[in-house]
Amino acid sequence: MRLLRTLMAAATALAVTAFAAPSFAADDPGPAAYAKALNGKRVMLVPLAMGFDLAQGWAHYLKKEVEAWGGTFETRDPNWVVDAGAQAITDAIASDTRPDVLIIHAPDLNSYSKLMKKAQAAGTYVILVDNPANFPADAFVGSDWDKLGQLEAEAAIKGCGENSSKKIGLVQGDQANSSSLYQYAGIMKVLEKHPDFQVVAKPDSNWDATTSRNVTTTMLQQHPDICSIIDFWDGDATGASAAIRDAKLDGKVFLVTTGGGEKAADCDKLNDGTYGAVVMTDLARQSGDMNAIIKFLLQSGQPAGTSHTYIYTLEKATTKADLKPDSCWDLKALQAEAAAK
Amino acid sequence: MNAIGWPNWRRLNQEGIVFAIAILLFAAAALSLPGFLTADNLVAIVRSVSVLGILALGMAVVIIGRGIDLSAVAIMAMSVAWYLQLLNTGTSDGLAFAYVLAGVLAIGLLNGFLVAYADVPAIFVTLASGSFVFGYVRSQLITQDAVPVPQGHWVELLGGVRFLDIPVEVFVFAGLAFLVFLFLRYTKWGRFIYFAGDNPVAARNIGIPVRPMLVLRYALSAVVALIAGLLTAASLHSINTRVVNSTLLYDIVLVAVIGGIGLSGGRGGVRNVLVGAALIGILLNAMTIIDIPLLYQNLIKAAILLGAIIVDGIINPRDEQTAQQGDI
């Protein structure tokens, strides 16, 4: 009898459990915890400037996601001026609406280090994007510039071919920005393994297209048999390409550069033969990485400055041959989408 | 200065010193650097300073009249960026150009009006108007730092124009230099600029229309800036407004001033601009051939300029007669 009662009770319990299962699913603690941790949180992006493709792309993807989980997304535009960026960060930390996550695009290795430390001390998570800095941020999301340089050098060597002059020219950015310094280091690593290839000149463009054109013109006059030029940024590689065009060496000099994978800046120019290869950043994925780490940090409960994560974006040298319709993202389309709202 | 217009070597002034340094550098580079003394490289040198030189011509006219135009680079970049943006969004070419020309003239006239009639120092007026032009155009009229030239547009074709394998900028620079030379030397208003620059009060007392002429100079400088911008876009097939943040503005003043155009006004001419541009062009080209890093390039450039000014100070010491009020 007692056994029967126990069995019946067990059966009832089982039945209740079985019928109650759907309501257990509705009680998934995830969404509530997610909403509690994220709702109303502030995210601020301070890029080098808001006027160029990378920053506009990041802002687009971040805003979409942050606003979807009920946060506030803001940007500041230092317009390439380091001081203005420092001011924006200082103001943000001191304001009543201090951001919970600060995404910083550092202009060089050191300028913002103290400010970032201050931000962390005030409880703001700091994420460095694109340009590394001498600072243990909560996360770095961006290119491994050394690896990127290696990819550029490999593309240049391939573009030159075995039967070429094996002379390569570099148009560096400057001698302060980490992206320029590490890119150079990466290129040299690969060229060490190919001792028959030599770098014949390595002027700086200071990221300016006119300067890039002038130094490339001189380089091509001194070494008309250069088979490849690596310009460190698609923002000024238009200058190097103008010099190649002016010297009537189109198709003879394989121009390699790197950029944010924007359609007009990169894919269109690969297509018309201006660039031979571009090491492109997958911007949507990079922004996705940022979104993921923001969500992680805000839910982690750990104080700012506790952990240091590096999330390097997958890079690939793209040439005209492996250009696909979705190789690039289209800034005009994003702007039209934003305007339509 | 003697009748032919060459520097008088017995009394070396700053122009003479800079010219001598330029010749020395040229000789040294020609002897030691392979590939320096080739026709192509000489053309490249002139071309590399053409846009800088054109801007310096506009600046020279303003400085000789005892003024300064710090809005030149902003006008250059932003007017062309706006023009290209209008074209890219479907405005007809004629209309777009008319808008931009009107805008450029308006800023030039505003600069001139504020300096001439409101008596605000030129350095503040043009600093502010330059920032205004940049800020307004960048935030309201264009969406990107870099604006491309539409495919097949005349600006793109202009960049490919060559005569005897010499790029079009060189001819524009030479042509403008000649025009400004004629204007300053042989027209009444050109001569008046020297009087007005040397002593505005006296110039006004003898009946020279000092104020309308001042307005004219700033308008002229603005139009010259537009030409320089169009040439930049023609060569690069795009214009990047980031150039407003670069040292270009200082380089323009530098070219004018190291050539010997005194910031106190009333002195100098086109030849000074050419000498200044030649020195900068030769210097930058030689350093690029030697492959000197940018940081050292700036250091060397600064050292040579400082040297020229010091030598000038020793040879031509300042005294009550040579120093002018308002000299900076």
What would the keywords be for this entry?
heterodimer; A: 341 residues; alpha/beta; Rossmann fold; 2 domains; six-stranded parallel β-sheet; six-stranded mixed β-sheet; 12 strands; elongated; B: 328 residues; mainly alpha; ABC transporter involved in vitamin B12 uptake, BtuC; two-stranded antiparallel ribbon; two-stranded antiparallel sheet; 3% strand; globular
Name the CATH superfamily assignment of the largest domain in chain A: Response regulator
Computed structural class of chain B? mainly alpha
Helix percentage of chain B: 55-70%
Determine the fraction of residues in helical runs of chain A and give it as a percent range: 40-55%
3D architecture notes:
The complex is a heterodimer of chains A (341) and B (328). Chain A is of the alpha/beta class and 341 residues long. Chain A folds into 2 domains: 33-143 and 283-314, 3-Layer(aba) Sandwich (Rossmann fold), CATH 3.40.50; 145-281, Rossmann fold (3-Layer(aba) Sandwich), CATH 3.40.50.2300. Chain A contains 12 helices and 12 strands. In chain A, the strands form 2 sheets. A 6-stranded parallel beta sheet of chain A has the order 2-1-3-4-5-11, with helices on both faces. In chain A, strands 7-6-8-9-10-12 form a 6-stranded mixed beta sheet, sandwiched between helices. The longest helix of chain A is centred in the first third of the chain and has 25 residues, at 2-26. Chain A is elongated and about 95 Å long. The relative contact order of chain A is 0.12. Chain B is mainly alpha-helical and 328 residues long. Chain B has one domain: ABC transporter involved in vitamin B12 uptake, BtuC (Orthogonal Bundle). Chain B contains 14 helices and 4 strands. Chain B has helices at residues 14-32, 39-48, 50-64, 72-88, 93-116, 122-141, 154-159, 168-186, 188-198, 200-205, 210-236, 248-258, 270-290, 294-315; strands spanning 146-148, 162-163, 166-167, 238-240. In chain B, the strands form 2 sheets. In chain B, strands 1-4 form a two-stranded antiparallel sheet. Chain B has a two-stranded antiparallel sheet with strand order 2-3. Chain A binds chain B through residues 49, 51-53, 56, 79-81, 174-175, 201-204, 206-210, 213-215, 217-219, 221-222, 235, 238-239, 242, 246, 264-265, 331, 335, and chain B through 34-35, 38, 40-41, 44, 47-48, 51, 138, 143-146, 148, 159, 167, 232, 235-238, 240-243, 245-246, 284-285, 288-289, 291, 293-295.
